[in-house]
Every structure is written in C-alpha cells, then in structure tokens.
C-alpha cells in the first residue's frame, strides 16, 4: 500500500486513509485479494444502470469525446481500446475475451449518431494471459483515430467507455477507490457482460487499467475492478515502460 501511495501522490486521490488523505465515502475494504467466487456477471452499482450513449453525454467527463473513437467492440461480446505503443498501436482488452493466436473481429464507431466513419476489421491476438487478465490485438487495418495513452495516475473519478452486452457505445462514471495487488478498484461505476476489456480512464482520457471483474450490487455496497496498465506493461513483450505516458 505504501508503494501505491507514493506513486499516486502527484494525482488527486481520495479516501486513502493509509495515504493520510481526507476520508471519502465509506466503501468496503478492497485490498484483500478477491476470489473468483465473488465475481458477478453483471456488476450493476446501485439501484439503476447509469449508462449514457457516448454522443449524448454531457457530464463531467465530456472532454473524453475526443477519446471515444479509440474504443471498440470485439467479437460482439467484449470491449477494447486502441492504445499507443512504441512498437505500434494495438487494441488492449481482457485476456478472458480471446485466445492467443485468435482472429478477432473489431468494430469502431458502433454507437448512436456515430461521429466517425464505421470501420470493421480483423486482428490477430498477439498476447494473451489471465493473470494479469489482458490481451493485445494487432489490427489488419489501423483506423484514422488517435490511440490512447497508458498511465499510472488516478483521478478522484474515473470513467469507462464500453459496449455492455454488445450494445452501442456508452459511458459510465464513478469513484476511484484504491490501487493495490496490481488491481484498480472503483465504485458506483456500472458495467455489464460485454464491458470486459474496456479501458478505465482518468480525467485526462488516459488508460489507468482495463475492466475485468465486477462485485457491485444494487445497494452499491462493493466495487468493480480491473488490472492496472502498469502490471500489463510489465507482463507484455510488446509494450515498454516508456509506453506509460504519466507516472
């Protein structure tokens, strides 16, 4: 925990009593390693699903409109993000979504009132693992969109642009809770089946991690989580330490 406090000291981090910060709303302890049995298939946080179609969104993350073009639907059942890398842009998603060597079908701009040209292309899964739970897809055709940067800097609120249940692109936002055990935790941030692999974005629109698991409920009494960009870079032959823009 001390290591993470030091690393995140340059960003706005709320509710980390171990870091000596101002107390935030009460949330469950998250830094015990979760067990697979706790993982929910839905991960709705609170009594309602708070999804907004990306091109109708006018909330506090409105600046992420410039980032949403990099978010893709994968094989109709997962979400991914085109990320910047010195070795070449790749789509980052969850490892449980694909298999190594698979050919994946990737769709850009599947959204209400699309503001970019639809692009459907194939790609090859060049890396895949379950711990950390990530995969990289090398696309046959690169779109004319800016890939997103990786970061280790959290902000007090986070957003996930996603394709829940294979639907058109939406955004949800919520509270940053903690980073520990190579995972990032967030509350009051809805996801569903199909959201796996979506980037967990800070206020700058940089990818802090990827969403992989949910443990929220209708009472908003727990958290959802994903693996940090930092641990993914450490595990990846394709990605390099210099690919993390903000530390």
* N-end to C-end Cα span: 16 Å
Mean pLDDT: 83
Listing every helix as H and every strand as E from the N terminus to the C terminus, the arrangement reads: HEEEEEEEEEEEEEEHE
**Could you tell me the number of beta strands?**
15
Number of helices: 2
Which structural class do the helices and strands define? Answer: mainly beta
Biggest beta sheet attributes: 6 strands, antiparallel, barrel
Please give the share of residues in helix: under 10%
Percent in strands: 25-35%
Compute the CA-based radius of gyration. Answer: 16 Å
Q: Quick one: overall form?
A: globular
Q: Give unreliable regions as ranges.
A: 1-27, 37-41
* Strand numbers in spatial order across the main sheet: 9-10-11-14-13-12
Labels describing this entry:
15 strands; 247 residues; disordered N terminus; mainly beta; 6-stranded antiparallel barrel
Structure, explained:
The protein is mainly beta. Helices cover 5% and strands 34% of the residues. It contains two helices and 15 strands. The protein has a six-stranded antiparallel β-barrel. Strand 12 and strand 13 form a beta hairpin. The N terminus is likely disordered.
